[in-house]
TrEMBL record:
Residues 119-131, 174-194 have a biased composition (Polar residues). PANTHER family: DNA-DIRECTED RNA POLYMERASE, MITOCHONDRIAL (PTHR10102:SF0). This is DNA-directed RNA polymerase. It is an enzyme of class 2 (transferase). PPR repeats lie at residues 296-330.
Length: 1262
């Protein structure tokens, strides 16, 4: 057997040498000598102790893994062999020699013994002569010195394959686990020699060796000096620091998804009570080396928690042994479980507890760390405290009351100087808020909410009743069928060998009651669109619903609900109107209450997010059950048909562009039944409904918003974890969290009169003009024809096919719009008598969003119009004027007029305003011609109520007045570049009348057109009279957000097509012409904008080319990373189909350079925009204002518009008084340019555009 193994190694290395080439042969000889020595040692040890067959086989495979890893490392290093010095260890002919690499290490280059140990086990080799590989290497180095003029070209050629190593750091970073680090080292650093006492060369050999060493040292020094001079011209791929970072990042993320899958599987087993399965699974992973590497300490801790609950200390001791075998180090969670178990064990020996505490201290961990950093469930903290007090009776955990001051200079005064702060109270008593908390808690525990549809008001026909009864009957039958199918399927999965290391879905199917799975599946059938849904999307939604229910039930089992109730009831003391006034923020109050209620579980849980693949796989399993088991009689609607059972769902394929996509489509019979039934009930997930009580304040990246429903602080693509890791490392997010909490504490209510008008139009026939989608009865009929009919010509058949596709597309769009409106209006109608709140989170750029997805103030004109503030404030002396100005702004008229001019215009049309309020559907209908008709109508009604009140200044108004930024992106660019002309055009400089940049660009483009028309350009002549503000607005607005000329042309093309009088045959040429003129006009108006954009783009290009993703930190300290990586494809196999997942956020993949560089300018501006909004929100809150935002559009009461405008201007000036570009440049230099080969990158990153002197920018109110 040994002979065969030895022959295999010979053959393996022979093939490798042929593949790699002669440049690496010398290094392979070194590796081979190591292999011989290892085999000799192993053979010798086998005489002492015979191993069993399995262990020997395992060791051989481990050796093979090591050898393969070494060859991969050598392949990557082959082109850089001139950088390293090869020192060969002689394989001893007997057992006298020590193991490889254990001889003394020489510290200087002169002491290196090159030829003596150069032979590698070849029998006839002379001891005093260097090996032929060493001679060949020496000759190669001499040749390189003679050909120095070609070295630059060679380096340039190889850098694309592998970064040039600078020193030992780069070399070691490239090595894989199990690879020796003792053979190859930097020429100027470490070398390895044999023991001089065991190997004494002759005097001639010593002199020759010294000469050779000195000569080689000189040659290598000259080569390295040359390469150092050339390093400035080497591309960023040659950076050793960069190479090291790539390897570190890769190692950190290699097993990320796998570890998450393993941990979620173990937690599912434990939650389902299948402890034996979890234990056997962990052991099966631990026993095999390849899979053991995927385990981390948290997975062992999961089982430690289980045995701690049972009080079996012996099992925990065995797991500690497994942890040691895995080469892992116990962490706080490990010791916490051990001490908890000791606390549960009656009469546990203090000596055992002391030994555990001593070991913990040796590992650098303290008892205080246990109580401040561990996440506790149920009574774990109390048991831990009991164990500690057994040996330290007077021990008291230290409360974590230290508040880190915010580092950003923008908010230091906000947190340190609070004497004049007036934090607003809610218009509720403490008892009312506590009652609302109970209602919200009950809703989230149920996970779903069933509400009445707004279509319930429609008259019920006989056919509708019949269809509803049929659906109810079949749903009852489907539930029974699915319940039986699910239980049978689980029985099959349960028989899977629990010792098998493979993951299966059985534990995930035991987390909830079987009926809960069935209810989720039945709910998804009712909401399936007639055109079907992608299998991947449908499966993801099903999996997410299961995860949400699992998390809610997990919190209930961990006894979090009771503690949450106690803390929230105390928290209402801060918000209620009948309690004392506090000078602390909601986040600070909640943290203080958590400290006071320290016993029991930790509210900030450490639940593992299910990996995207697990979610989709679980959802696919449920879809498969539905497709196979849900059936209906074929003659249910047409008795003339033959009766047979047919599936109600079909699995089919369709094409999206060039990709084939799996689809789940409902049978036309089911679609017809659902449409004709027009059911009066809608079921939503609980997080879709606005909250009935103020949200839990965000106190960290892991806790806030809903009471029980899991919510992420930062939204991300499914599966992306980069943002979470950054946020966890960030120690001070106070300003960001406090601004989100401020937005979430704003209470809302429904504008009921307006809602009733909208519902009446919705239930009538809708209105395209007013953005109310019509019912499906108004959809075009899909033409039917027989393609095999010979009476049709090929041209007619092609035309008919196009008409069918067009009709189907129109029907699908109409259904989507109709259902979207139905959901929004039904939720609004459900909340018509309620006060409610919108919890907020943010995207990776810091832009804030309400968490409820359908109904919120970021929605369309319709949803914004039916939302008003719950708290009313008197209009005051100027409030009515602001309402009138706001109404004119909503019409889209008088863009270039001053505020006084707009007010005068509003006064001149008061008759139309009052008529619109009194007779919205039967009067003059003036409001219908506004840009935002429904918001305009709501404002008309508010103005009418105010002017008809006895004293308009005392009229209590709930209406939100908007102050919108003037092309906000250009405002930030103008401020960054200190561009006075550009700043003037976007209202950052004092002007008699508000400026309109869109009209200004349109006017400039018209001048270009007139000039070209005079010179005879045909398309310029055709465009006469068609260049308007509306045509260019979208392109101007999005240029600062990275729109390309291609995208701009599409935008202009769409606007031109909307003009009925414009000749359609010229749309293509006209859009090409106009997009060029718009870009030219912007370049002339905003001189600094393009310069800043180019610098940001080039910086991102260099960073991403070096293999790094672009990161930065906002002025408020929010870390941001762009998650754009090269797309990789992962195939998820299931019984239905293989799902091809396109993953573009995988940190293991190299960055997508195009996306990174194109997205950096707009994302950076978005982050500044969000920073300005957050600053405004904080200072408005401290001034007692009601404030919400829709990105760059700020809302408040009419009474406080002037105060909000003042705060907005002050914070904009404060933000841009900071050296933003300089700080960004310094951050990028520090993060990405720490190596020697970054001169070009450093040069670019330091060349941020000169911002010039500060100007007193401010935002004029529109």
């Amino acid at each position: 057997m040994k002979v065969k193994c030895f022959f295999f190694f010979f053959f393996f290395f022979f093939i490798t040498v042929l593949l790699i080439g002669s440049n690496i042969s010398c290094v392979l000889s070194v590796l081979f000598s190591e292999t011989l020595l290892w085999l000799q040692q192993r053979n010798f040890s086998s005489l002492i102790k015979r191993e069993d067959g399995k262990k020997r086989a395992l060791e051989r495979f481990q050796l093979l893994d090591v050898l393969e890893a070494r060859i991969q490392q050598l392949q990557s290093d082959v082109l850089d062999v001139q950088h390293v010095k090869v020192q060969v260890i002689k394989a001893p002919s007997s057992g006298r020699g020590g193991p490889p690499g254990r001889g003394p290490k020489n510290k200087t280059q002169e002491k290196t013994d090159f030829p003596k140990s150069a032979h590698s086990g070849t029998k006839g080799a002379s001891k005093s002569q260097p090996s032929r590989w060493m001679e060949k290497l020496s000759q190669e180095k001499k040749n390189k010195i003679k050909k120095q003029q070609h070295l630059q070209q060679k380096i340039q050629k190889t850098v694309d394959e592998k970064p040039a190593p600078k020193a030992k750091k780069s070399k070691s970073s490239q090595m894989l686990p199990g690879t020796s680090h003792k053979i190859i080292s930097s020429a100027a650093q470490k070398t390895i020699t044999t023991d001089s006492k065991k190997q004494v060369p002759s005097r001639e050999g010593q002199r020759q060796s010294a000469k050779d060493a000195e000569a080689r040292a000189k040659e290598i020094a000259e080569v390295e000096e040359l390469e150092k001079r050339l390093s400035q011209q080497v591309s960023q791929w040659a950076s050793s620091t960069n190479s090291e970072r790539l390897v570190v990042d890769s190692d950190a993320n290699t097993c990320g998804d796998i570890q998450s899958s393993l941990r979620s599987y173990l937690e599912a087993c434990v939650f389902a009570g299948d402890i034996e399965r979890a234990h056997q699974f962990l052991l099966s992973q631990h026993r095999t080396m390849n899979r053991r590497k995927q385990l981390n300490i948290e997975m062992y801790n999961i089982m430690m928690r289980v045995w701690a609950k049972k009080g079996t200390l012996s099992h925990i001791g065995r797991i500690f042994i497994l942890v040691e075998e895995a080469g892992l180090k116990p962490n706080l969670g490990s010791y916490c479980a051990a001490l908890e178990c000791m606390g549960r064990t009656p009469n546990c020996s203090p000596r055992v507890i002391n030994r555990c505490l001593s070991q913990m201290e040796e590992d650098g961990l303290s008892v205080d760390d246990l109580f401040s950093q561990c996440v506790f469930r149920q009574d774990e903290r109390d048991m831990l405290l009991r164990a500690v007090r057994t040996v330290q009776p007077d021990y008291q955990p230290k409360p974590n009351t230290t508040l880190t001051p915010c580092a950003s200079p923008l908010v230091q005064d906000f947190y340190s100087q609070r004497a004049d702060h007036q934090y607003p109270k809610l218009d509720f008593s403490q008892e009312e808020l506590q009652e609302r908390f109970k209602r919200q808690l009950s809703m989230e525990q149920a996970c779903t909410v069933t509400i009445d549809s707004v279509e319930v008001a429609m008259p019920v026909t006989e056919n509708m009743t019949k269809m509803r009864e049929l659906l109810a009957e079949h749903r009852s039958q489907w539930q029974k069928t699915l319940l039986q199918a699910l239980r049978e399927s689980k029985m099959i999965l349960a028989k899977t060998n629990t010792k098998d290391y493979r993951l299966n879905l059985y534990p995930y199917l035991c987390l909830l009651e079987d009926r809960e799975y069935v209810d989720i599946m039945i709910q998804s059938v009712s909401s399936l669109p007639p055109s079907g849904e992608s299998l991947k999307i449908l499966a993801r939604d099903l999996g997410n619903r299961l995860y949400t229910k699992y998390c809610v039930q997990q919190k209930g089992r961990n006894q979090i609900v009771e503690k949450l109730s106690n803390i929230y009831n105390a928290y209402t003391d801060l918000l209620a109107k009948d309690t004392k006034v506090y000078d602390v923020l909601p986040r600070e109050q909640w943290c203080q209450l958590e400290t006071e209620h320290s016993s029991g579980p930790t509210l900030q849980g450490d639940e593992t997010h299910w990996p995207y693949t697990v979610t989709v796989e679980l959802g696919t399993y449920m879809v498969d059950l539905m497709v196979k088991n849900l059936k209906i009689n074929s003659d249910i609607l047409n008795p003339a048909c033959d009766r047979k059972l047919i599936p109600i769902l079909y699995h089919m394929y369709t094409f999206r562009s060039t990709r084939q996509v799996g689809f789940i489509k409902p049978h036309p019979i089911l679609t017809q039944m659902l449409q004709e039934a027009m059911e009066t009930k809608l079921t939503f997930d609980s997080y879709v409904i606005p909250m009935l009580c103020p949200p839990v304040p965000w106190i960290s990246a892991k806790f806030g918003a809903y009471l029980l429903t899991p919510t992420k602080l930062m939204r991300a693509i499914d599966g992306a974890t980069q943002h979470e890791l950054l946020l966890e490392k960030c120690q001070n997010l106070h300003a960001v969290l406090d601004s989100l909490n401020q937005l979430g504490t704003c209470a809302w209510r429904i504008n009921k009169p307006l809602l009733d008008i909208i519902i009446s139009i919705f239930n009538d026939r809708g209105s395209d003009k007013l953005d109310i989608p019509p019912p499906m009865s108004e959809a075009p009929k899909i033409p039917h024809f027989n393609p095999q009919d010979p009476s049709y010509t090929s041209t007619e058949k092609a035309h008919m096919k196009r008409e069918v596709i067009k009709a189907k597309k129109k029907c699908s769009e109409m259904h989507s719009l109709r259902m979207d409106a139905l959901y929004k209006l039904s939720i609004a109608n459900y909340m018509r008598d309620e006060i409610f709140w919108f919890p907020h989170n943010m995207d990776f750029r810091g832009r804030t969003y309400p968490c409820p997805p359908y109904f919120n103030h970021l929605g369309s004109d319709v949803t914004r119009a039916i939302l008003v503030f719950a708290e009313g404030k008197p209009l005051g002396p100027k409030g009515l004027d602001w309402l009138k100005i706001h109404l004119v702004n909503l019409t889209g008229l008088k863009k270039r007029s001053s505020l006084q001019g707009r007010l005068e215009y509003a006064n001149s049309i008061m008759e139309d305003i009052l008529d619109s309020a009194d007779n919205p559907l039967n009067g003059k209908k003036w409001w219908m011609n506004a840009d935002e008709p429904w918001q305009a109508l709501a404002c008309c009604m508010e103005i009418a109520n105010a002017v008809r009140s006895p004293d308009p200044t005392r009229f209590i108004s709930h209406f939100p007045v908007h102050q919108d930024g003037s092309c906000n992106g250009l405002q930030h660019y103008a401020a960054l570049g200190r561009d006075v002309i550009g700043a003037t055009s976007v209202n950052l400089m004092p002007c008699d009348v508000p400026q309109d940049v869109y009209s200004g660009v349109a006017q400039q483009v018209e001048e270009f057109r007139a000039r070209d028309a005079e010179s005879g350009l045909k398309i310029a002549q055709v465009l006469e009279g068609f260049i308007s503000r509306k045509v260019v607005k979208q392109t101007v607005m999005t240029v600062v957000y990275g729109v390309t000329r291609y995208g701009g042309r599409l935008q202009i093309e769409k606007r031109l097509k909307e003009i009925d009088e414009f000749p359609k045959e010229y749309v293509w040429d006209a859009s090409h012409y106009l997009v060029r003129q718009v870009f030219t006009g912007l370049k002339e108006m905003f001189t600094g904008t393009r310069e800043i954009q180019d610098w940001l783009t080039e910086s991102a290009r260099l960073i991403s080319k070096s293999g790094r993703t672009v990161e930065w930190v906002t002025p408020l300290g929010l870390p941001i990373i762009q998650p754009y990586h090269r797309t990789r494809y992962q195939v998820l196999k299931s019984t239905m189909q293989h799902i091809n997942l396109q993953i573009s956020h995988d940190a293991k993949e190299r960055p997508d350079t195009v996306k990174q560089k194109n997205a950096f300018p707009p994302n950076f501006i978005h982050s500044l925009d969000s920073t300005h909004m957050m600053l405004t929100a904080l200072h408005c809150y401290s001034a007692g204002l009601t404030f919400v935002s829709v990105h760059d559009c700020f809302w408040t009461h009419a009474l406080t518009v002037d105060t909000m405008n003042k705060v907005c201007r002050e914070q904009f000036v404060a933000l841009h008084s900071q050296p933003i570009l300089q700080e960004l440049s310094n951050f990028l230099l520090h993060k990405y340019c720490t190596g020697l080969l970054h001169q070009k990158k450093q040069f670019i990153l330091r060349l941020y555009p000169d911002t010039g002197p500060n100007h007193s920018f401010f935002i004029n109110a529109k």
